[in-house]
Amino acid sequence: SQYFGDLTDPALPDDGAGNEIRCLIAHQVLSGIEQHIDYFPYATQGNGVNFGNLDDTSRFRSCSVSSSTRALWCGGKTPSYVNAISYVEIMTTGNSDDFGDLMNTAAGAASGMSPTRGVIAGGIVSVSPTVDFTSTMSFITMASKGNSTRFGNLSFTGGYGDGGSSSTRALFAGGYDQGNARNQQRISAVTIASGGNAINFGDLHIGKAWNWGAGTQSRGFFGGGNAFPSQDHYNIIEYVSMNSGGQALDFGDMIAGAYAAAGITNAHGGLGGF
Question: Which phi and psi angles does 243 have, rounded to 5°?
Answer without folding.
Answer: -95, -5
